[in-house]
Each structure stands twice: as C-alpha cells, then as structure tokens.
Fold these 2 entries.
Entry 1:
Amino acid sequence: MKSKKAQKDKLTEKELIQQVWIDYQKSNGAELKDKLILYYSPIVKYVASRISVSLPSNIEIGDLASYGMFGLMDAIDKFDLSRNVKFETYAVSRIKGAIVDELRAIDWVPRSIRQAGRELEKSYQALQLELRRAPSDKEIAEKMGVNIDKLYEIYDKLSSSSMMALEEVKMFDGPSDDRLALIDILEDKSLSDPIEVIENKELQKALSTEIEKLPEREKIIVSLYYYEGLTLKEIGEILGITESRVSQLRTKATIGLRFAFKKSKFKVK
C-alpha cells in the first residue's frame, strides 16, 4: 500500500514539473524558471562530480558546479518540450559543455603540458598510420626522441591535467551546439528510453569498433574504467600493475580513440 502511494506521489511530482514546463514555455516567467532550476539542480552536482574526478585537486567542485549552473539555465531557455526528448539527457550535454568551456577559458593547463600533448598525439598518429596498428610505448618514445621514463612522465602529466579525457564529439552534419561526450555514448545496459538508444546507437557502434582495435590491456582498462566504473586503483589490482601504470595506459588508449574519431565522420575537439 505504501509503495502504491509512493508511486502516486512520484507521478504527481512528474505531472507538476511537466505543467511548470508548459507554463514556462508559454510565458517565460522568471518564477517558473527558478522552479525548474531548483528542480534540476542535482544534475549540475552530478555532472560536476564526474568531471572533477579527472581534474587536478586545486580545481574546486563548487567552481565546476557554478559553471554548470549557467549550462543548466541555458538548457532550460533552449529546451523544446514538443520534441519529446528527456530534458535530463539534453541538460547533461549543456551543463558539461558550460563547464568544459569555462575550464578552457581560464586555461589552467600549463603551456608545457599542452605542447607535450600535441607532440605525443602527432607521434602516435604518424606511427599508427605507418604501422597500421596501435604503437607500443617503446615505438612512441623513439619517435619522440625521449626515453621510456620520460614518456611515462608525459602520460602522467597529461592524465592529471585531463587533456586526454574522452571529452567531446561533434557530428559534422549536426547543429553547432549539438555536442555529446564520448563517455556518454558508451552503452548503458540499463538504458530503456528508445529515443536515447536511437540517438546514440551509431556513436556507440563506432566507439566499440575502435575500442576493439586497441591492444588487449588498453582495451580492458578502457572497458573497466568507462563501462564498469572501476577506479584506476581497482583496475591495477585486477591486472597486477600499479595505479600509475593504469593511468598511463588509459591516457595512451584515449589518444588512439581520439585519433580514430578524427579520421571518421565525427569530429573530436
């Protein structure tokens, strides 16, 4: 009996927020917008928490949430209720975009790390085209003219700076602001919304194909980290390697995935 009442209350809440949406899109009233912001604000905290995991400790989650609130407000202003798409799905992309844009604007990544990232990507891409497979660490180090320890140091710096995160994918033929994160197109086994399934199907297939081309250990790390949600430490325990080495291999795998999408019809920023 209690369960039925809870279900009824939950349904009533959904109906109420739906009515707020209808009224807001008719009038653009500030009070109605405030109600929507308050209702959906937990999404901002969720997105900020996910992003903060791969950022340096000096980046405060509160700051990320502040940036994300602008994305939420923008999403509320631009959301089209008639499209029958879940607002949460649309808002996550907007919120994440606002946070990433602000991080780029304050340019907290040192120039030396950006330069190292560009050199590493350039060497990786040249070797992959030449060898027609993912290059080894030794091959990358030789191409860059550094020793293996220096290469590992570069991996560590890139990983901590989050420059090599599975960040944004943009379809060439889509709207200018229609962005998805690669991490958000990994298949979600619990996903049941048919619209979301259709929207993400092509990207999921493309990403899965590229993951299969990675060396076995890198493939396992990507799958465990992004699909299963394991931490780097937990993955290290499973594979019998250090957390630092897992981080390095994840960074290398991400470079390969980003390059693969640069060659495809998708654009990675």
Entry 2:
Amino acid sequence: MAASDKYIKNYINGALVPSLSGNYIDDYNPSTGEVYAYLPDSDAEDVAQAVEAASEAFAKWSAIGIQKRFRILMRIADIIEQNLEEFAKAESMDSGKPLNMSSTVDIPRAVSNFRFFATAMVQFSSDAHYMEKQAFNFTLRQPLGVVGCISPWNLPLYLFTWKIAPALATGNCVVAKPSELTPMTAFLLSKGCMEAGLPAGVLNIVHGLGPKTGEAIVTHPQVKAISFTGGTKTGRRIAGLAAPEFKKISLELGGKNPNIIFADCDFDQMMVDTLRSSFSNNGQICLCGSRILVERPLYEKFRDEFVKRTRFLKVGDPFGKTTDLGALISKEHKEKVQSYLELAEMEGGTILCGGTEPELDGKLANGYFLKPAVVEGLGNDCRFNQEEIFGPVVSIQPFDTEEEALQLANGVRYGLSSTVWTQDISRASRMAEGLEAGIVWINCWMLRDLRTPFGGVKQSGVGREGGQEVLRFFTEAKNVCIKY
C-alpha cells in the first residue's frame, strides 16, 4: 500500500477530498489488531456537499441515456476485474477474511454486480394496458433523484456495489457510505470510477460513523430513498427516521437461519455445504445457517462427523494458502461472540468443539481469531438460539417430524433464509411453502441467480433487492393514459 493510501479520502463531486473537519478514524487490520489506515470522520456538512453534487449531476445523468450509462458501468466493472488482485488484498487486509475468499467470491461478485445491472437496465421494460376502443395506458419508470446506499462490513465491496450498481443503472445519483470498519475497497472503487469516466457527482462516497454520517444521509431532505444492509436495530432506527418523510426504504437486516437436514439427504454433499454455510467468512454472512436441525435417526452420525470436520478447519493468516477462517472483524465483535458461548453454557448447552483462541505467532498473536464452535443441548427458546450472533458458532438440535422441523425453523423473529436437505421432492416442496423466509435453498446453499428477488420477512427486513425488484425500487412508476 502506498503511503498516501493510508489516508482514505471521500469521493465527492468527482474528486478525492478529506472530510471538512480534517479529522480521521482509525482503520484496524483485524489480523494484527493494529491501525493500518485512516478514514475521514465525516459529518452532516460532508454529506450536504455530496448531496448537492449529486443533485446537480442528476439532470444530466438521468437523461444521458441507457446505452451511455451501460458503457460507463461496464468500464467500471472492467477496471475492478483488471485490478482484482489489488482489490482482493485490500479486502482481506481490511476485513480479516481469507484472500482466497476475497479473490474468488467478493471481488468477482462486485464485477458481476456492475455488469448484471448495466445489462438488466438495457432490457428493463414497462407495462402497457389496453382499454378496448377507448385508450391505452403505459407505465413510465423514472429515476428517483438522489438516493442513499449504506452497506455493512461483512462483504464490503460485494454488498456496496450490490446497491450502487442498480441505483446508477436506473439513472439515479448516489450518496453512499461503506462501513467504517472496512472502507478500503470503497476507496479503491472511487479511483476506479474516476478512471472509468463516471461524471462528477453521479456517485459520491462519504466515509464515517453510522450515527453521524449514515444518519445524515438518511435524514437529508433531498435523499429520496435509502437502501441499507446491516443490523435490525439500526434498520429500525432508519425506518423511524425515513417514514415521516415518506422516503422509500429497502432494509436487509439480521438473520437466525435454520439448516434443516432430513435423514434421506445426500450425506456427503450436505456435509460439505453445511460446513460452508456454518463458517464461511467466520459465520459473518447474514445467510449463514446458524441453527442446524437434524432428523433424529441421522443426528448422532451428523454430529460426530460435523464436529470432526469443524476441528480440521484451519484458523490463521488470511493470506495463508491453506487458511479456512481468518480473523473476526474487530476485538469488540470477537468479545461479543465469546460472551454468547459463555451464555450457551449458562443456558445448559455443551460446547462440543471450538470457541477458544488459536495460538498464533508474531503480529497475528494480537489478531481477532477464534476457533469455530459447535454447541449442543439447547432448546429453541434460549437466547443463544434466538439472537443473531454473527460469528463462527452454530447450534445443533434433533427433530422427529416434519411438523416439528417447521416449528423449530420458524420459531424465531427473523426470516431471511432457510436450507433444506432431502431427496423427497414432495417434502421439499411442503417445507419451502411452510418456511417463513425470503429465500429457501433445497439441497444447496448460497447458489445465487442475480435475477431473483433477495430479502427477508419478519425482522429480517423490508423490501427486495436483485433482478427486476431493485430496478423497480430505484424508480418511480407513473401511469400515462392516452385516449383515442
């Protein structure tokens, strides 16, 4: 990293600038526990500058035409792809995740987000309704204006671009805030946008803290919509601020996802994917299956094999070629996860493996590492099985009937995703229909088609992202009726 890049800058009106206050926030490397960069401590004045730039750019960007927007967004995708190694290293340094994951999942998905939504907008069509011998109606879908996009730390560039790309493709101008814990790839994206020739003011990236910078974006009167991914508590706060101003909101929030395993499953494939769905990115993915429900005839076999495989997972240097799990995002988050493991034992559970800190040498000795843990013996009503932990910990529970599996799976306040393992297509269909979740995976996990709607029910969120759904979110429908 160049010395100048240690001081991250805001991207406002096409230029890289410090915050108006001149203050900075420490950016920690989770693998070493050391400060390695600094990001702007922006406030409402910085946000106001960004909104003003976006407002001025909107008329031209919204009228520039779909084909020109398509070409610019495709150039941004090409620049990210051409610099994939730099982006991936920055992502792993900033978040603590293994370089292999950044290189094969996070950064390629960011490229796909720009390409998919640039292409989707070219093919986006409106509705027409014919009134026999009187008139016909057609629907205009027009951009909203200035929109706010706020993304989390767990999949930094992946989810940042998941919001920005469709907002730009539909003709909006954006004021965006990445997480203050993982700002580096958003900073690199700023440079990529400048290189791609994105007009000044179309995308503005303002770094800072959620209660200060994020809230200023949500409450600014010229920001017409908010797309947010993060915790349910923050989502509730955003909804409360946005509702009185009648702003559109899309909130992708927490999860406590069930992984339901029937005895007739393909055991080998299920084990591979269940290990992934439990501990990918240290369990710091909203779609991870943190509650594993196993049909009783298979329970002991599953438990023994799953614990054995969990113990084999290598925790360590994100840049190590054989590393399975890197560091958790922060010291505070690691301590939160550890407190839930202590709670599990207090509630009567047994930690079958993990939950301890690995012995690492050198700078890694001060990193935020934790061995993945499996907990047994807890009921569905305990806090450990009800509250989102967002770490490398899962609980396992047996069930006897399909009805009991559904009751356990739906017995939480969240409803983001579910996974079902069975070879019985009728059972799979019944489970898919009965599960209270926005996504149901059958015999797979994290298999994503960007054309499909994405989001949760209950306290897992409001609205849908992806495909046509997000293009509709970032546009306003206007009916035009022509009498003849």
